[in-house]
Amino acid sequence: xxxxxxxxxxxxxxxxxxxxxxxxxxxxxxxxxxxxxxxxxxxxxxxxxxxxxxxxxxxxxxxxxxxxxxxxxxxxxxxxxxxxxxxxxxxxxxxxxxxxxxxxxxxxxxxxxxxxxxxxxxxxxxxxxxxxxxxxxxxxxxxxxxxxxxxxxxxxxxxxxxxxxxxxxxxxxxxxxxxxxxxxxxxxxxxxxxxxxxxxxxxxxxxxxxxxxxxxxxxxxxxxxxxxxxxxxxxxxxxxxxxxxxxxxxxxxxxxxxxxxxxxxxxxxxxxxxxxxxxxxxxxxxxxxxxxxxxxxxxxxxxxxxxxxxxxxxxxxxxxxxxxxxxxxxxxxxxxxxxxxxxxxxxxxxxxxxxxxxxxxxxxxxxxxxxxxxxxxxxxxxxxxxxxxxxxxxxxxxxxxxxxxxxxxxxxxxxxxxxxxxxxxxxxxxxxxxxxxxxxxxxxxxxxxxxxxxxxxxxxxxxxxxxxxxxxxxxxxxxxxxxxxxxxxxxxxxxxxxxxxxxxxxxxxxxxxxxxxxxxxxx
Length: 523
Description:
Elements: E1 11-20, H1 40-61, E2 67-69, E3 73-77, H2 85-92, E4 100-106, H3 110-120, E5 124-126, H4 132-141, E6 147-149, H5 153-170, E7 173-178, H6 196-202, E8 206-211, H7 212-217, H8 247-263, H9 271-291, E9 295-297, H10 300-305, H11 308-312, H12 317-326, E10 330-331, H13 336-349, E11 357-360, H14 380-383, H15 389-393, E12 395-400, E13 418-421, E14 429-432, E15 442-448, E16 454-466, E17 475-481, H16 484-491, E18 500-502, H17 506-516, E19 519-522
Parallel strand pairs: 1-2, 1-3, 1-4, 4-5, 5-6, 7-8, 7-9, 9-10, 16-19
Antiparallel strand pairs: 11-12, 12-17, 13-14, 15-16, 15-18, 16-17
Helix pairs in contact: 3-4, 5-13, 5-17, 8-9, 9-12
C-alpha cells in the first residue's frame, strides 16, 4: 500500500551561512577591532568558528524525525555588499524542494535575505549575529515576505514542528465519498464546509470524490476481472477494471481479521462481519491510493439511507478506526471541518485522533440525571453516578464508535480494545477502548468553522467512559473542561464534532492558526 501519509512528511530545511569579509585594513562605523582583527584572514577565521557553531548546534537542535536538513549552503560577501545573481543563484538552485530557509551569518547580509525572499517566496528564519535578526525580519515582513527569528534554538526547532503542519495540509488530498452534495452532507453534517474551494484556498488541502455506490461496489470480492467483461465487474462501473477486492486482498484481510480478534479483550460479533468491514477498509485504501489521497470522509447516514450498508452487512466504523491509527485521518459523517482538525491535531501530537459527537452533560435539578440524554442506551445515567458535584459541573461527552489503538502515539504500544457490533442484529464491526483506563489524561480538542475562517480549540481532562460494552454509536469519553458553558456557547459556531488527541497542544494549534490566517476561538 503506497499512500503518502502526512505523519511521514518532513519539512525540508535549507541552512545557509553567510560570511562578510573585508578586503582592506581600515577602521570606521562598519569596522571594529585593532591589529590583526582588521585583516581578511581574521574575518575568515572568525567566520569558520561561527560556521562550526551554527552547523553543530543545528544538528543537535533540529529533530530529524520530522525535519529533512538539506546540505549546508555558504556564500561570501565583501564590504561592497553587492548581492549579485552570481551570489544568489547557487543558494536557490534547489528552491523547489525547500520549505524554509534557516540563515546565519557574520556581518550585514540583510539585503541578501531580501534577494533570497524575492526569488523564492519561501519562509526565512534568521538566526544571525546580534541585531541582524530583528533588522532582517522587519525588512522582510514589511515587504510582505514571511520571516521569523527566535531567541533560542529550542524555540526555533519547535516552530519548525508547527510549520510542518502547514506543509502537511497543503499536501493533503481528501477522498470524499459523496451522495448528492460534495460540499456537505445534509443528513450527516449540515455544519460541514460551505465551499471546499474556500477550504483549499484558506487551508491548502485538495479533494477527490467517489460516488458512494461505486465505492460500495468495489468492496465486492471478484476472483477474476477481465476488461470489458461486464459479468465480472461492477453494476455501477460495467466493464471497468477497478479496485475490487481480489484473491491477494483476501489473504491480507483474513490475516488482519485474525490479528484483530487475537488482540481484543472481548469479541462480540462473528468473524465474518469483521471481514466484511475489513473488505470496506481495503477497498477504500485501494481507491485512495489510486486517486493519490491520504485522508478520507464518508456520509454515514446518507449511505445508510440507501439500505446498501444493511445489504452488505458492514459500517465504516472499523475503517475509520484503522485509518486513524495508521496515520490516515478518517472522518465519520462527512465531517470535513472535523477532518481538518484531525489532520492538524494528529500531526502536532503524532498520535491518532478520536472524533465524536461533543455534547454538554447537562443535568436536571436532581444533579444526577442527564437533561439531554441523546443516546439513552449508552449508560450515561449510570456513569455519572460515580462523580462528585465539582466534576459534574463541567463535564462533557464525546461519543461515536471509532476508537483506535494509537491514542497514546503512533510509536506507542497499542491501547487495549474490544470489538463490538454496531447493529442490534450483530454486524458492523466497531473498535472500543475503555477510556476509564486513561482517567487524568489531558486532551486537546479542535474544529474548523464551516466558512473555513476560524478554528475552535480547547483543553480537557478525561474522567470516564460510556458505551464500552454496548452496540451502536454509543461509545465515548467523558471529560471535564475549564468552563462547560463557555465551551458550549463557543462551540455553537463550529458544529457538533470536536475531534481530540491526547496531550496539551492548545498553543500549537493557535500557532498553526496564525500561520494559516485563521481566527482562534479558545474555550
